From TrEMBL:
Source species of the chain: Candidatus Auribacter fodinae
Substrates-to-products reaction catalysed: AMP + ATP = 2 ADP
Binding residues annotated for ATP, in chain numbering: 10-15, 127, 199
Keyword entries, A-Z: ATP-binding, Cytoplasm, Kinase, Metal-binding, Nucleotide biosynthesis, Nucleotide-binding, Transferase, Zinc
Pathways per UniProt: Purine metabolism; AMP biosynthesis via salvage pathway; AMP from ADP: step 1/1
InterPro entries for this protein: Adenyl_kin_sub (IPR006259), Adenylat/UMP-CMP_kin (IPR000850), Adenylat_kinase_CS (IPR033690), Adenylate_kinase_lid-dom (IPR007862), P-loop_NTPase (IPR027417)
Keyword flag Transferase: yes
Enzyme superclass (EC): transferase
GO biological process terms held by the UniProt record: AMP salvage
Name of the featured protein: Adenylate kinase
Sequence positions that bind AMP: 31, 36, 57-59, 85-88, 92, 160, 171
GO cellular component: cytoplasm
Residues given in the record as Zn(2+) binding sites: 130, 133, 150, 153
Record note on domains: Consists of three domains, a large central CORE domain and two small peripheral domains, NMPbind and LID, which undergo movements during catalysis. The LID domain closes over the site of phosphoryl transfer upon ATP binding. Assembling and dissambling the active center during each catalytic cycle provides an effective means to prevent ATP hydrolysis. Some bacteria have evolved a zinc-coordinating structure that stabilizes the LID domain.
């Protein structure tokens, strides 16, 4: 399946992505994770992207489009993938359409997650991530077994630089002005599935996976 997860920052895209890729055995492609890795390794792309990311602004389209094109060329994407956090602008969506049409592999579904803004701010300001693998936890909603230590690799949990309230509000504003219009873009293509992401993590996963399975059965 070729899938996209669309939704505001903090709505739970990364959390749900982990469960969806396990259910459908496709690679998880998160442009946020790819960019954070580039920043950490101080690559030329990382050095360009850092200032935008710290302020909660979008990294320029050309940089992100090139990263995704390169990643989609990898052999593990031939049978499907889950894009998380890409596309975020109409220009990115159009670039993706043209790459996929060359491969004769259109998007099957765009899963749009939504939740109210106060809930999102609570989720992001309370998020802690593993300093080694990047896995997300939450100080109230998703605690590790040992306080401040990642369950998987025992890395220390830290707060992302862009998870302070001021930057979170800017990220939400950027979503409203630049990304939200993709809901109409994909509604017009008849591939949008909307899911209320305001509830419990497991029930949201079940709803998404059931909807995708019934769609897969029809195709
Ligand atoms: P990116 O990493 O993509 O960040 P984002 O879209 O802002 O999304 P987040 O990772 O913050 O949130 P999420 O929806 O994955 O939520 P999560 O599951 O962690 O992008 C970062 C930056 O990179 C951007 O600002 C931009 O600068 C740049 N960038 C990336 N892609 C780009 C692109 N295509 N173009 C240009 N620039 C780009 O959950 C959040 C918290 O809530 C966690 O603590 C989790 O445990 C908790 N939680 C999740 N679900 C629930 C639930 N149901 N109930 C309670 N708690 C929950």
């Amino acid at each position: 399946m070729r899938l996209i997860l669309l939704g505001p920052p903090g709505v739970g895209k990364g959390t749900q992505a982990e469960r969806i890729v396990n259910a459908f055995s496709v690679p998880h492609i998160s442009t946020g994770d790819i960019l954070r890795e580039a920043v950490k390794n101080e690559t030329p792309t990382g050095l360009k992207a850092k200032a935008y990311m710290d302020k909660g602004e979008l990294v320029p389209d050309m940089i992100v489009i090139d990263l995704v094109k390169e990643r989609l060329d990898d052999g593990d994407c031939t049978d499907g993938f889950l894009l998380d956090g890409f596309p975020r602008t109409v220009a990115q969506a159009e670039a993706l359409d043209s790459v996929l049409s060359e491969m004769n592999s259109p998007i099957d579904s765009v899963i749009q997650l939504y939740a109210d803004e106060d809930e999102i701010v609570k989720r992001l300001t309370g998020r802690r991530v593993c300093s080694i693998c990047g896995k997300a936890y939450h100080v109230m909603f998703l605690k590790p077994k040992i306080e401040n230590i990642c369950d998987d690799d025992k890395g220390a949990l830290i707060q992302r630089k862009d998870d302070n309230e001021e930057t979170v509000r800017n990220r939400l504003n950027v979503y409203e002005t630049k990304t939200k219009e993709l809901i109409d873009y994909y509604t017009d293509k008849d591939v949008l599935i909307s899911v209320d992401a305001g509830g419990a993590i497991d029930s949201i996963s079940s709803e998404i996976i059931n909807k995708l399975k019934s769609l897969d059965a029809v195709q």
